[in-house]
Amino acid sequence: MHPITGHGGNAAIEDCAYLANRLQDLLERGQTPTYSQLQDIFYELQEERRPRTEFLTKGAHRLARLESFGTPVLKQVMLHIFPRVPCENILAGLAESMTQGKPLMYLPLPQRAKRLTPYDDEVAVTPKRRSALSSYTWVLLFLLAGSLRYLLPLDATSSQNPANLTESASWRHYEGRTYFCISAIWTVESYRSALSLGPLLTPIPWMLLSEYIGWHIAVSLYSALWVLGTRYRGFYHPWPRAVPLAAAEALLIALPVALWGSVIFKDIALGAFTLYRGAAPYILLPVLTSLLSYVFKRDGTRWVPALQWGNRDISYTSPFFSLIFIDVGISHISFVMNDLIPVLGAYTVSLPDEVVGFVSITLLIMLWLLFTAWDLHRVKILNWALGRAGLYIVLGLALVGPGATLIAAWWAREKVWEKSRQRISDARYAGAAPQLK
Asked: How far is CA 78 from CA 66, 88, 89, 201, 420, in A?
C-alpha cells in the first residue's frame, strides 16, 4: 500500500474491526469460538476484504503516478486540470473510499458518529461496478439504434399523395418539445458531479452537434458515453445524486424562458450553426441555468458541498420535471388527436426523413429507459423485472409520447435513487450527535 493516500493503516484497522465484529457475534450467542470457527472467520475476512484492499491499493498507485508526474499527460493534468476540479469531486472520491469500511458494531459511538454518507451496508442500494461486457453491449445497442434511419427506406410517397404531416405547425411543435426533453435531461446530468470531468460536462456541444448531424446520432453517442462514464462502483453510492442547490434553483427559474423561448427569440447565430426558433430553447436552458447558478453560488448557503448529499434539490427539480411533463404531454395528445388520428387509414405509410429520424429518437428513448430500469435493478434500487418496465414504457410512449415518458421516468428515478441511499435504520445512532442539516 503506497502511503500517499494514508489508507494502509485504515485498511489494517478495518480488518481488525471485521474480525472483532465476527468474534463478538459468536460470543453474543454464548459460544466459545473453536479453532475451525476461527479458521472460517479468517477465511471469510480474506475473501471479504480482498476487493477492498485491491481498490485502495490501485487508488494509491494512481494518485502516486499523478502527483509524481508519471507521464507527460499526467503532468499536464496535475498542473492545469486538477487544480480546477470541483471540491465536491474530491469529497465524493474520499466518500467512496470510506463508505466501504467496517465499523466496530459493539463499541459505544463517539461524538458526530452519524456520518453524512452512510456505510455501504447501511443502505438499500448495493454499489457495484458494471461489467465491461454489459456496458459495451448497451453501447452497441445505442449505436445501432442511432443508425436506424440509414437502414429504413426514406422519402416513400403514397399513390394518393397524402398531405405531409411533418410540415404542419403541430408536428413542428411536438417534435421540438420532444427534443427539448432530451436537452433538459442533458442539462440536469451536466451538474452531476460524477460526470463533471468528462465529455458530458456541458450539454451545449451536444445540442450544437444535434443540429448539425441529427438528434438520433447525437443522442446515441451521448447515451454510449453516459453508459461508459457511470460504470464504476461509486456512481449510485456514495457519489452525490443531487445536483448543486444553486443549479437546481436556476433550472426552475430558467425553464419558463427556455420552454417558451421560441416565441420570444428570433434565430440565433452561433459560429457556423444557426439555431432556428424551434431550437432556441435547447441552448437557452443550459446557458440561463449556468448564468443564474453562478449568481446563486455567491450566496454561500447555496454552495455548501455537503448539500449535494441529500434531497434538497428535489424540491426544485420536481416542479421542473412536472412542468415539462405537462407541457410535452399536452403537445403529444394534441398532435395525435388533431393531426395523426384523422389521417390514419386514409393513406399508405409515408416515411420522410424527419419521421424516420423521430422514430430513431423514440427507439433510443425506449432503449435508454430500458437500460435505466435494468441498471437500477442491478444495484437493487428498483425491483421491477425488465418486462414490467418495458410494458410501462410502451404505455407511456402511447399515452404521452417519448419526451414526456423520458421526463416522467427521470423524475421517478431521482426519487427512488435518493430513497435507496438513505439509512435503512437509524437505531444504531440513537445516542449520537445529529447529522448535518
From this structure: 6, 18, 15, 19, 35
113 has a pLDDT exceeding 80: no
Q: Scanning the structure block, which residue is given the C-alpha cell 449535494?
A: 308
Give the C-alpha distances (Å, rounded to integers) separating 306 from 1, 240, 361. 29, 9, 37
Q: Do residues 164 and 41 share a domain? A: no
Residue 273: its H or E element: strand 273-275
Q: Are residues 71 and 151 in the same domain?
A: no
Residue 59, in any domain of the structure: yes
Residue 437 within any structural domain of the chain: no
- Grid coordinates representing 299? 450566496
The phi, psi pair for 275, rounded to 5°, reads -95, 110
Residue 366 lies in a domain: yes
Q: 172 and 237: one domain?
A: yes
User: DSSP 3-state assignment of 138?
Assistant: helix
In a domain, 431, yes or no: no
Q: What is the pLDDT of residues 294-312, one digit of tens each?
A: 888 765 554 565 667 788 8
Torsion of CA 75, 76, 77, 79, to 10 degrees: 80
Q: How far apart are CA 264 and CA 137, in angstroms?
A: 43
Residue-by-residue DSSP string for 71-132: SHHHHHIIIIIGGGS-HHHHHHHHHHHHTTS---TTSPP-TT-S-SS--GGGBS----PPPH
Give me the domain span that covers residue 164.
132-421
Number of domains in the chain: 2
